[in-house]
Amino acid sequence: MIKDFTNGIVKVNPIFVLALGLCPALAISTSIDNAIGMGASVIFVLLFSNLMISLLRNVIPKEVRIPCFIVIIATFVTIVSLALQAYLPALNESLGIYVPLIVVNCIILGRAEAFASKNPVSRSVLDALGIGLGFTLSLIIISIIRELLGTGGISVFGYGVTLPFSPATFFIMPAGAFLVIGLLLGLFKRVGVIR
Amino acid sequence: MKESWKRVIVLTSIVAISVVVLSSIYNITEPEIAKQKEIKFEEMLQSIFPLATDYSGKEGIYEIYSDNKRVGYALMANGKGYGGDIEILVGVNEDKTIKGIKILKQTETPGLGAKITERWFTDQFSGKPIGDIRLKKDDGKIDAITGATISSSAAVDTVYEGYMEKIKMMEEK
């Protein structure tokens, strides 16, 4: 059971192993705050969609499972989106369009299809937490590198340091995201963290 | 036959439940979202007119009052940038010079075009007559952001055109 949780962080890490959800990962990993905000939103959606889908797994007919999954996922994404607008407007602004786009994030539909629709609730919840955490940690690693090199400083929720070198703006641009993710993937493979 | 009815019923019920849940959550968050928008707008007004105590207006033209005396106007200007729509609040003095500007919405490239929101850029507009609101290369008095000429000129054009449009609307009244 505990493996369902730990698998998501390393062995089937969504970004570096499954290479799922790369679009939001590339787009919002410009700052650590964004990475944490996006990670938390994805964990919330993944947790509740896996929970619901696992509960309903014997009720939903096979032929209409995808529309059912999407409606469930979209419901939770809309809840997150409304809550962010109401209570965390600043974060909502910096995540922008990527919150509503969680609906089509392949990590979430992928876990619903591959895991939650076939496994009991407790295992599905652990899987959601593991995958969600794996996604968040990956985003944080990428955003630390991009924020540090791209803006010449690191800050988390307003506390931070500025380092005395001139930043390479390239790293916070989309091309920099590809380079950082690619190099990290290569590095993790080389040192054998992932296969 | 029975199987196909089951499909319809299950999918319809899931959608129906989702509708009920979302509409109740919308009702809870809606006033809060409206409040946040208003707070943000008032903060923006306050940062342009620090002495403002009250405002009134509609259709993107607001009259700003300080202790019941009108001190200027705030105009909403909309334009297109390099990465999407730009929305700028333009503060105007009684003598029609620019009091200050505030970028309300922009989706320019982070680290480049997004620098139009930085103080050193927006402060350049303060105190200038509208005729000076042009980039230096176009004989104006606004410095462009290095590497983001399109965003800089989009911001300048948005302010200029928004100002012209709204001033005309005010004079027609």
UniProtKB/TrEMBL annotation, chain A:
GO terms for biological process: electron transport chain. It comes from the Archaea. The keyword Membrane applies. The chain crosses the membrane at residues 12-29, 35-56, 68-88, 94-112, 124-145, 165-188. Its main location: membrane. It is a multi-pass membrane protein. GO terms for cellular component: endomembrane system; plasma membrane. InterPro entries: NqrDE/RnfAE (IPR003667), RnfE (IPR010968). Keywords: Cell membrane, Electron transport, Membrane, Translocase, Transmembrane, Transmembrane helix, Transport. It is found in: Cell membrane; Endomembrane system. Its EC number is 7.-.-.-. It holds the Pfam family Rnf-Nqr. Belongs to the NqrDE/RnfAE family. The Rnf complex is probably composed of eight subunits, including RnfA, RnfB, RnfC, RnfD, RnfE and RnfG. Part of a membrane-bound complex that couples electron transfer with translocation of ions across the membrane. This is Ion-translocating oxidoreductase complex subunit E.
From TrEMBL, chain B:
Its EC number is 7.-.-.-. It comes from the Archaea. The modification FMN phosphoryl threonine is found at T149. It is found in: Cell membrane. SMART domains: FMN_bind. It holds the Pfam family FMN_bind. The keyword RNA-binding does not apply. GO terms for molecular function: electron transfer activity; FMN binding. GO terms for biological process: electron transport chain. HAMAP family: RsxG_RnfG. This is Ion-translocating oxidoreductase complex subunit G. It comes from Candidatus Methanolliviera hydrocarbonicum. The gene is rnfG.
